[in-house]
Amino acid sequence: MTKNEGKEIVNRLFQEHFGCISKSGSGVFFAPGRINLIGEHTDYNGGHVLPCAVSLGTYGLFQRRSDRKLRFYSGNEPGAGVIETSLDELQPDRRFGWAEYPKGVLWAMKEEGFPIETGFDMAIYGDLPGGAGLSSSASLEILTGFAVRGLFDLDISDIKLALLGQKAENEYCGVRSGIMDQFASALGRKDHAIFLNTADLSYQYVPIRLPGAKIVISNTNRKHKLADSVYNERRRECQEALDQLKKAVNIQNLCDLTPEEFEQHRGVIQDPVLKKRARHVVYENARTLEAAKALKKGNISRFGGLMNEAHESMRRDYEATGIELDTLQEEALKIPGVIGSRMTGAGFGGCTVSIAEDSSIDRFIQEVGDAYLKEIGYAADFYIAEIGSGPRRL
């Protein structure tokens, strides 16, 4: 979907459900979703990640009101109708469904002391497949924060926008996610990945040069909901492993350890499951450091090999893949011209991301799709990923 098409859709939705659009106090905004090239489940363990924004995302038309009412409508959730609340009723309530995410951002802004004196109406539409692990929730959070910043002329940096989105997801929506998703959406740059140290939020942009190749997203169409999955359980397991390691070594996060240091001290972790979780995190962080170096050097072959290793670690040690993701990854690697493939996002459903030579993409989609349908019983969807920029006013 083009930006003009997205803008036209939210204009139409707004007029259908809220009436006229004023020339002042309104605007159309866009915020992207993301894929993570490598560095999975390291972001809440003080490690490095390598995400990039994609051209898919969420569009929204926002218009200020003169009272404190908040009204929300989503073209992706038409059955929910117009959802109404106010700035004075920002308490978590699952009955509000998808609107909990923008409500959560407003709550986080209020908690941080940003003045929002009047409410607004918003109509949104997204072309991110929901529940696919491409961060539709972070896209919606950043869209809300970016639009509110613009409409109310608030002094909020892009990094602060990301932190407000994470605060909303963690403390309001109850998902103990790391900072990566919101950071990638808020600070994305076209044709670049973000090499982010989640321990201190230092980052640098790494150009993505794939001569003769493209990134292919394969969607399992098995929807996952982080809040209802074992995501929070994995986070708890990592914390338990860290607590045990702290008895032997002075660290603040699992990713403070190199693989060599982990092997030296791993014996203090008594539970074999916790040991596997920690091993994935430590080795995944090391892979991400090496992957960033490989991208900078243009060594796509090495980068692809690290992607494959990362998927195997997620399958074996973090146990966060499942038959759908494993089938897509295994079938992808059977196609000549596929340089690397791995699951992306939290896991437990969602998508894989693969690097495939241009000449092999048609075969990739046909043969991986056929094999997946035969094995799983329903179809996967495929997208050629375009690396996009961060949020903007349209």
Give a description of the structure.
The chain is of the alpha+beta class. The protein is 40% helix and 21% strand. A hairpin with a 4-residue loop joins β7 and β8. It is globular. The two termini are 14 Å apart. The mean pLDDT is 95.
Key descriptive features of the protein:
alpha+beta, globular, 11 helices
Q: Sum up the overall morphology in one term.
A: globular
Order of strands across the main sheet: 5-4-6-3-1-13
Approximately how much beta-strand content do the residues carry? 15-25%
Low-confidence stretches: none
Biggest β-sheet: count, sense, barrel? 6 strands, mixed
Helix and strand element order: HEEEEEHEHHHEEEHHHHHEEHEE
Round the Cα radius of gyration to an integer and report it: 21 Å
Instruction: Count the E strands.
Output: 13
Assembly of the depicted chains: single chain
Q: What would you call the structural class?
A: alpha+beta
Task: Quote the average pLDDT.
Answer: 95
Summed up, the helix count is 11
Helical proportion, percent range: 40-55%
What is the terminal-to-terminal distance?
14 Å
Write the layout of secondary structure elements.
Elements: H1 3-18, E1 26-36, E2 48-49, E3 51-64, E4 69-74, E5 83-86, H2 100-111, E6 120-126, H3 136-151, H4 158-172, H5 180-187, E7 192-197, E8 202-207, E9 213-219, H6 231-245, H7 259-265, H8 272-297, H9 300-316, H10 323-332, E10 338-344, E11 351-357, H11 361-376, E12 381-385, E13 392-393
